[in-house]
Structure formats: structure tokens, C-alpha cells
Design goal:
acyltransferase; six-stranded mixed beta sheet; transferase; Acyl_CoA_acyltransferase
Length: about 150
Amino acid sequence: MLAIAALERDALGDDAWSAALVEEGVAGRLPTISYLVTEVDAGDGPSVVGHAVASVVADIAELQRIAVDSAHRRTGLASRLLDAVVGAAREGGADRLLLEVREDNAGALAFYAARGFVEVDRRRRYYRDGTTAVVMRRSLVRGCGASG
């Protein structure tokens, strides 16, 4: 759990969840929250290199966070984590997946757009530093907005 919290802090900075909240989620004590974790063999044992956190409630899933270790970015790991979240959301009965991303994070906006997400709203001053969040949505079934 410490490795996941450290990755969270390194990848998400001021927007990272606290180590205590990460521990609650990983331990399964946060209703609806699931952690998907990717590890690699670092020679001295497994090392956490990525994680995604998703919530599924009825027909709506939300990607709460996705983080990849800087040494493993641009390797397809984030895409595989997102695919796993989509699969889990569908299995949980969701027909759409929502997320928020910082409006100043052009790389993330392009990443999600390339994977079928469309902007549906904005949340002004959403992040701690006052940055606006772009709310994005991806349909998980036919007939629910964008193609699934």
C-alpha cells in the first residue's frame, strides 16, 4: 500500500489522495471503489508501476485516478489500465464511464479523446490550485452517447 501511495504522490502531486485514503481503498473499505495495480519484477521483488482507481455505482462508472510511474510512461501501461477499468465497469453494469482531468493537462486530454471520451462539462476551480476540471464521458454500450 505504501508503494501505491508513493506513486499517487509522485504522479499526482498536490491532487494526490492521502496515504490513509489510499490504504482504505486498497483494503476494500471504501464502498464502490476498486484499485487496479500493475507491478513489474524489479529484480528484488515486485514494484508498483501503475494503478487506476474506479468506482461503479449502478449504471455509472467513474475513473477516479490513473497513475503511471515516470519510467513506464508511453509504454501502453495507461492504456492497459484504462482498458481494465472499462472492462470492470462493464462487468459492474455501467453503461458510461466518467472522469475529470485538469484543463491544463493537454497530454491527458488527448489520451482520453483518442480512447473515445468526449467533453461533457467543466467544473470551475475544481482542483486545489484553482484549475478547472474537464468532465469527460465515454459510452460503454451502444445507444448511450458516443460509440462504445
